[in-house]
Input
Amino acid sequence: MYRIARKDILSEAVVSFEIEAREIANKARAGQFFVLRIDERGERIPLTIADFDRDRGTITTVFQKVGKTTHHLATLGEGDSISDVVGPLGTPTHIDRFGNVICVGGGVGIAPIFPIARALKHAGNTVISIIGARMRELIFWEEKMRSVSDKLIVTTDDGSYGRKAVVTVPLDELLTNNEDIQRVYAIGPAIMMKFVCITTQKHRVKTIVSLNSIMVDATGMCGACRVEVGGETKFACVDGPEFDGHAVDFDVLMARQRMYLSEEKEALEHYRKKKEVS
Amino acid sequence: MGERQETERPKKRIPMREQPPGERARNFMEVPYGYTAEEAVEEASRCLQCLKPMCRLGCPVLVDIPAFIKLIREGRFIEAAWKIKEDNALPAVCGRVCPQEIQCESLCILGKKGEPVAIGNLERFVADFERDAGEIRVPEKLPTTGRRIAVIGSGPAGLACAADLAKLGHHVTIFEALHKPGGVLIYGIPEFRLPKIIVEREVDYIKKLGVDVMVNTVIGKLYTIDELLTEGRYDACFIATGAGLPLFLGIPGENLNGIYSANEFLTRANLMKSYLFPEYDTPVKRGRSVAVIGGGNVAMDAARVALRLGAEKVHLIYRRSEAEMPARRAEIHHAREEGVEFNTLTNPVRFLDDGKGNVSGVECIRMELGEPDESGRRKPVPVKGSEFTIPIDVAIPALGTRSNPLLVSNVPGLGLTKKGYIVADEETGMTTKKGVFAGGDIVTGSATVILALGAGRKSAQAIDDYLKWKFWDTRKFAPS
Ligand SMILES: Cc1cc2nc3c(=O)[nH]c(=O)nc-3n(C[C@H](O)[C@H](O)[C@H](O)COP(=O)(O)OP(=O)(O)OC[C@H]3O[C@@H](n4cnc5c(N)ncnc54)[C@H](O)[C@@H]3O)c2cc1C
Ligand code: SF4
Ligand code: FES
Output
């Protein structure tokens, strides 16, 4: 059992937990994820380790209420426990002193880009960050991001906060005006990562993306997480989750993410009905 | 010995009663019911109590087969179970999943003229009897040695090794990546062939021996082997992580929705209980027309699970002929009885798309047997122009596995074969790295429960020796 030490409601749809998992916190590095299962009947879902505190022995995760599991998760509070937490999983981000880098986080992707931006900053890079969401109330961790960035740009699709634009607009400008960007890191919805990669390809800047495919074991045993990278099948849980964005087939990723849409709906309805009854 | 009573001995094997095929193909309950005490005694009475029992030679762990059969005949069922447990810690499992027809039963003298003694059925009977009688005996342990051993992986190899080491008085911790211990016994082999309660009981037994079982612990990520040996203060490690990475066909369309590796399909169904969705959260596509590709136990299991999930048609596609299928005969027989359609000498060429990213068909080509290949089996070659399409909405390649590099590629000094399996001495499980032993599928590639179990036991003995003398002879591994 893993206790929830702290819960923050970041927006109507987005929640963050600090979970007590000392060993995982000791080992976690930027770019890694963990798997959780709420209870005996739960499914195993991967979530990025958005932060870790080695003194407190906790890992932080940020999730959006989408399907049954994340809705259920959001009903848990401080002091409640989660049955299973497994990690840290996946290959950590390759951190080096590259020079100038841009970190792009979209939607809940703002959370996992944070530890990467922080590690890049610590390694001596100049970090420009762009965080974006559909509207003001979905932007979170702005101050946290600012604290690890030399410059921070905030965008919203509807202009309710920061600049009215999608993240690729300031990205394109930065790349056009600044010849000297060595790398771009992008995490967010698949469609956003796809367009980030189209943008950076134009400017020939190496781009690292983190793929959030459906997973089961997350140890390389099942192949649920397979993605196509450079024409080859890769397992996101062990070969990734980070890949060279210019080689990723985002259409395959998006199609595979939709695999259980109807089941997810059914599970959520079933869960809501059961809650009403009880 | 040799109380020969020719006249009374039944000639034919006592069949095990089973659920009727039509019924069972729609539920997840175990297929055979098991012998009654009378049936077991009657079957046991067929055994000739050979002075040189051939059956025993066919058993990878050399169970004293005639001795336990004799105890059954005398009605001493619990003692019979203990007799088996002297050599095999998991009789309830092995009685159900061992390929007896190519092991003990293939050598039984009665098989020369008629049917061999149903050794597997008898093994299962006594193990179940012991359990139902509530008389699971925890053997006496030797005094504590203060030595600590880390076992990585809780499949049959890990469980067997841990049990033996605990009995020898060592402190054993099993580290398991998944949330439930048991390895393939829990996540792979389906409920109707091996009820999970049986595996859970075996794990409980091992815990009763004093073994700590740490689930949710991925070695190589949370701790490295070197950390276990230093900071973790373990005196030795036994790596039994099984064969991981599933193989795919490498044909177009393989990443379409609805295409599962057998590992994924079975893990969803068994470990995650997706057949109870939405009561359980994990979904699985319930195909109406399902293609399973392969001819081993894994393929049979996947095909039979697909039927139980409600498929109207399950097509088993195999490139060679039925005689070459590596699955247990009983599984092939059960699958066919339940309505799985066999397409032998058939090979998939590509998967077809419904335009929305879902699989809608598989194009196949007929094969014929040509010249023998390296393995001595006649090699299947495609028949030109024989392509045809099977409409499907779920496909399950069950083509075997490769070594999972997650742990083994991150252990400095650990020698690997070209295929990525661990190089280990067959008799002891010693690897090229001091203090590290290995056994089971991660050494041999996908094999059997009993071979994994045997490897675990041999390593337990070798680890016990090593802890006394700390002698490490790796000359065997030096290139000659
Ligand atoms: C569907 C299916 C049906 C089968 N049917 C039969 C049958 O009828 N008869 C038969 O004899 N054999 C059968 N087999 C084969 C048999 O199950 C295997 O040969 C046997 O289980 C191998 O045992 P093992 O202990 O080596 O590994 P496994 O049973 O594979 O166990 C390995 C364990 O290690 C864990 N692990 C892996 N990596 C790590 C890590 N880094 N850290 C911690 N833990 C880790 C895994 O999660 C797993 O639990 C079948 C296999 C499958 C898949
Ligand atoms: S070979 Fe057959 S008949 Fe002889 S002892 Fe073994 S089981 Fe009995
Ligand atoms: S999630 Fe199973 S192999 Fe990646």
